[in-house]
Amino acid sequence: MSASSPRTPVPVEDARIAPKPGLRRFHQARWDEPLIFELTSPGERGVGVPVTDLPVPALPAGLARAEAPRLPEMSQPHVLRHYMRLSQETLGVDLNVDVGQGTCTMKYSPKVNDSFVRDPRIASLHPLQDEGTVQGVLEILYRLEGLLKEISGMDRVSLQPASGSSAIYANVSMIRAYHASRGEGELRDEIITTQFSHPTNAAAPKTAGYRVITLMPDADGYPDIEALRAAVGPRTAALLITNPEDTGIFNPRIEEFVRLVHEVGGLCCYDQANANGILGITRARDAGFDLCHFNLHKTFSTPHMCGGPAAGASAVTSALEPFLPRPTIEFDGSRYYVDDDRPESIGKIRPFYGVVSNLVRAYAWIMALGAQGLRDVAETSVLNNNYLISKVLEIKGVSLPYARGRRRVEQARYSWEKLNADTGIHSEQIGYRVADFGTHYWTSHHPYLVPEPMTLEPTESYSQADLDEYARILAEVAREAYEEPETVRTAPHNGPIHSMRDASLEDPGTWAVTWRAYRRKLA
Amino acid sequence: MGGYLAGLSAEARVSFTVGLVVNPVAGVGGRVGLKGSDGAEVQERAFALGAVPQAAERASVALAELRARRPDVSVLTVAGAMGEAAARAAGIVPEVVFAAADPTSAADTIAAARSLAPQVDLLLFAGGDGTARDVLEAVGDALPVLGIPTGVKMHSAVFAVNPRAAGEVAADYSRLRDAEVVDRVDGSPRLFGHLRVPDVPARVQQRKTGSSGVTPDAVSGIAAELGSLVAPGELLILGPGTTTRAVAAVWGADVPVLGVNVLQDTKLLAADVTADQLLKLVAETPAHIALTPIGGQGFLLGRGNQQLSPEVLRAVGLERLHVVATEAKVVALGGRPLLVDTGDDALDRAFPRYVRVGTGWRRTILYPLNHSPSHPLNHPNHPLNERQS
């Protein structure tokens, strides 16, 4: 197996002047670490709580446990060691050239922003504190709203949504409230989206009770405008669309899309989760949209984590302002305050103000860059993407379907269809093998519209050398697919997990996201 | 859905025996420009034009892949060119359990498949659509089957995407699905029935080549949506196909997969009806029609459901015709339009250019429908067609 070392080892005395390695001789740690629940040792404690003679207030009967919870009993070093080991068995944005998680905008999050969030002046706040004692954080949120208004062109922004999906749900709820306020709530029961928009643009309206109509791409990969003409009508509540879509192709007819929907009385809602390539270049308002949303955890610094804390922002024109989630944060010229008296509001999307830690990161990130800096981010991410495209398309077996000869914005969806036809190797298998070189990639949402897909999004964070390294890894794995396919087929070789049965992920009978479920189903 | 092997992984089975039937002349017409390889006359012409049989070589690629992944596999096959040679070329010593005359014929394929079926866990066959039809006739849905693609132009959804993938899938699958057997008759694709094939959902080509996994979630959503459209007492006419059959199954109705069936209040009222019977039924009771396109082909009307005659369609009304398919099946059409060929040109033209395909509860995909050869999507130089070829 040629899993390691296609390059000649660099002699030690030359190491400090050696160029960046052609291919990394990576091997991940493997600790064979049990689940934390399996590490329990009865009586072991992390903190010795002193016994007290002071009276302890009695708990309400309904809250008292009959027996102690079955938590793992462990010392502090055992806990620390456990999580350090797990961290060594993962890849992540601070560890590898993380350009492979296309549509997720895995950019570098400056560590100084974390220091603001950890500062006790933020970290020790409680959302139920009197607003007179939290003027500082309210000012940050108010000013962040102002920045996002400028970036989107919209009139008001709610920072309450906890995620992109939550923001889309808030927008759909506002769309419903808008039509209801005009006596058309029952009539307008259809929402239109596109196949290459994020699936949440279909899922959120469906959750909210709408009928969802999905438009397929036309031959060039653009949303089919003829299909839109056939879809719109008196029942149209709104169009929810991404631009650029997951393919990275910018829809040049977006104004016509907006016009067709407006002509029948529908609203237009711009999913700007993928805004990294258009900051300071286009604005949702300028294209005629009525609502938009941002994923602050993508474009605005906080990394997109494993289902961890995100932050969404829903932006609307003044026509939709009365329906914003409540409360809003206002400023009367001398003091910031929370306005919860909003009778037409859709209510709360989540408790309190939003995910404050991520909102602080976003504010710090925007303020550090300034207006020109934001535009530089967009231009650099587009340049990086198109540079990487030119490198990747030199590799045998890969192609960039749709819109031939046209540039992509900040991400690209490639196809390994030819390599698969030539070698039998699938895109997922290439992805596993790429992990042997210390990075990874994502294919696409299911079902695959682009055959054997691979979606890359280099953002502005990566240097030319980083991108060259990533392209070299892909080229090497493609070479292996043609010349020694067994190496790819049996990958990964250098990671802690050697192969995974996808089928188990599709079978609810084997899902175990809690210890209790694990014991019930698998132990 | 799920089948009798659902949940049972390849590893969990104690021993694994595969049957192999190779149609040695499958695909010989392809490289010499003939449109197929069915019948002795075409085969003779192909050989006269210099065709070289590829089937055995492709079958051995599949077997080698299977053996690499499942060294414990036992292979039962037919003597000589119908399987034994391919197995030996893959380094496998097969157990020969059947011998056929030379030259071989469709009858040999059928007889061989019948004799292998009771003895094996999975039947692999190398051939094209004609061979798939023979296997269907021989074994029906009695056991899991997988095609190693060696035909000229395969319409059926029972084939792996390439020979190596056939070995890969044969070595590791955990559930089965019904997949369409389609063959061209007089130039038009026709649905002949369904084989039970391994369902490997992570492999998009499966979805592209033909019918997709009809998952319980998607089908129950489609059934709920259809149910909400049909008023009590009204008829629901179900076209053929696994999707519509699965919808009926959600309601507890067991309908034949090939015919046109009529439900009333979710109960089977009349099975496998004729056009005349349908016309009588819809004259008395208001009706809806639910159709699913042929996977990978896109035909909605005029292929395998001629019972839905122009008269029946007019009597019901096109606005009461509902198209249903899983999202994966729609995507597997690869952008090629839905097709109608009712035999009545004016009726064909009355279909809208875009139809709503119900993919779940309150979910539709707006999809192009073609009744005109001049539609851009039908042009051979259309990038989508180019990609498929």
From TrEMBL, chain A:
List the catalysed reactions: N(6)-[(R)-lipoyl]-L-lysyl-[glycine-cleavage complex H protein] + glycine + H(+) = N(6)-[(R)-S(8)-aminomethyldihydrolipoyl]-L-lysyl-[glycine-cleavage complex H protein] + CO2
Q: What class of enzyme is it?
A: oxidoreductase
Annotated region Disordered: where? 483-502
Pinpoint the Aminotransferase class V domain residues: 187-300
* Residue span(s) of domain Glycine dehydrogenase C-terminal: 379-483
A GO MF label:
glycine dehydrogenase (decarboxylating) activity
Pfam families per record = Aminotran_5, GcvP2_C
UniProt keyword terms in alphabetical order: Oxidoreductase, Pyridoxal phosphate
Catalytic activity, EC:
1.4.4.2
Question: What is the documented function of this protein?
Answer: The glycine cleavage system catalyzes the degradation of glycine. The P protein binds the alpha-amino group of glycine through its pyridoxal phosphate cofactor; CO(2) is released and the remaining methylamine moiety is then transferred to the lipoamide cofactor of the H protein.
**Official protein name in the record:** glycine dehydrogenase (aminomethyl-transferring)
